[in-house]
């Protein structure tokens, strides 16, 4: 089973191919936020270097957010169009889950934090479990100080990862026992998307393209401006 993963919920544009053998090929770029211009050539690139033809793809996994509205919509629209053209099912995963997964081997509390702009962050808390991580909180949006208060109240050694954690390092890093992950853990990974999607695909936990929904935690900037 070959899975194509598409990740565009943040400044990073990424895609990856994988299956039983693990990740076969991957691509990522964080320059320019040119999601629409970058994504399709990137998919062609990973297919060519992974030596996979489009007709061999069995499912398409996509990051459904939370994240940047334009990027999310580009990724999901492209994923849906490809799934319909190839007549394959889809798997949707959260950007916050994808942030937490690469640091699953830590025994500390994990805070996955994405910069939501407007002095807010998207976040969720996780803990290591055999084979991965378990989410402990709902997906949330708040100011960084509210997240800091939550971590302070838990009084645990914690690791905060994501571009939101880096942007508000001064806020989160002031709390005793909280470390902020480095730039290598700043963005959700398309490779992590494929790795997390594979066991779901084995269990046939699919949705059809028309059933897939984006995870919005607030209105878009355009909607906020219209309301104002």
Question: What do you see in this structure?
Answer:
By secondary structure, the protein is an alpha/beta fold. The chain folds into 2 domains: 2-95 and 189-227, 2-Layer Sandwich (Nucleotidyltransferase, domain 5); 96-185, Nucleotidyltransferase, domain 5 (2-Layer Sandwich). The protein is 35% helix and 29% strand. It is built from 8 helices and 11 strands. The strands form 2 sheets. Strands 6, 7, 8, 9, 10 and 11 form a 6-stranded mixed beta sheet that branches. The chain has a 5-stranded mixed beta sheet with strand order 3-2-1-4-5, sandwiched between helices. The longest helix has 18 residues, at 69-86. The mean pLDDT is 93.
Please specify the SSE layout and strand pairing:
Blueprint: E1 2-7, E2 13-19, E3 22-29, H1 35-50, E4 57-63, H2 69-86, E5 90-93, H3 95-100, E6 109-117, E7 120-129, E8 132-135, E9 140-142, H4 144-154, E10 158-161, H5 163-167, H6 169-172, E11 178-180, H7 190-202, H8 221-227
Parallel strand pairs: 1-4, 4-5, 6-10, 10-11
Antiparallel strand pairs: 1-2, 2-3, 6-7, 7-8, 7-9
Helix pairs in contact: 1-2
What are its keywords?
single chain; 228 residues; alpha/beta; Nucleotidyltransferase, domain 5; 2 domains; six-stranded mixed β-sheet; five-stranded mixed β-sheet; 8 helices; 11 strands
Give a concise summary.
With 228 residues, this protein is an alpha/beta fold.
Percentage of residues in helical conformation: 25-40%
CATH class label of the largest domain: Alpha Beta
Structural class call reads: alpha/beta
Query: Can you tell me the number of structural domains?
Result: 2
Tell me the overall shape: globular
Major beta-sheet overview: 6 strands, mixed
Q: Assess the beta-strand content as a share of residues.
A: 25-35%
The CATH architecture assignment of the largest domain turns out to be 2-Layer Sandwich
């Amino acid at each position: 089973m070959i899975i194509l993963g598409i990740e565009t919920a943040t400044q990073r544009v990424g895609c990856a191919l994988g299956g039983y053998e693990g990740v076969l090929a991957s691509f990522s770029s964080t320059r320019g936020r040119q999601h629409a211009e970058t994504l399709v050539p990137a998919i062609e690139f990973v297919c060519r270097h992974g030596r996979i033809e489009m007709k061999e793809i069995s499912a398409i996994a996509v990051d459904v957010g939370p994240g940047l509205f334009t990027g999310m919509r580009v990724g999901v629209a492209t994923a849906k169009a490809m799934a319909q053209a190839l007549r394959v099912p889809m798997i949707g995963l959260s950007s916050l889950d994808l942030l937490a997964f690469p640091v699953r081997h830590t025994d500390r509390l994990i805070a996955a934090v994405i910069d939501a702009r407007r002095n807010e962050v998207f976040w969720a808390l996780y803990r290591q479990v055999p084979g991965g991580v378990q989410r402990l909180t709902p997906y949330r949006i708040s100011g960084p100080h509210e997240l800091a208060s939550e971590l302070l109240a838990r009084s645990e050694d914690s690791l905060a990862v994501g571009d939101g954690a880096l942007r508000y390092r001064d806020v989160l890093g002031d709390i005793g026992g909280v470390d902020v992950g480095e730039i290598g853990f700043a963005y959700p990974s398309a490779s992590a998307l494929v790795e997390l999607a594979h066991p779901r695909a084995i269990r046939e936990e699919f949705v059809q393209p028309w059933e897939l929904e984006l995870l919005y935690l607030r209105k878009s900037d355009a909607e906020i401006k219209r309301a104002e």
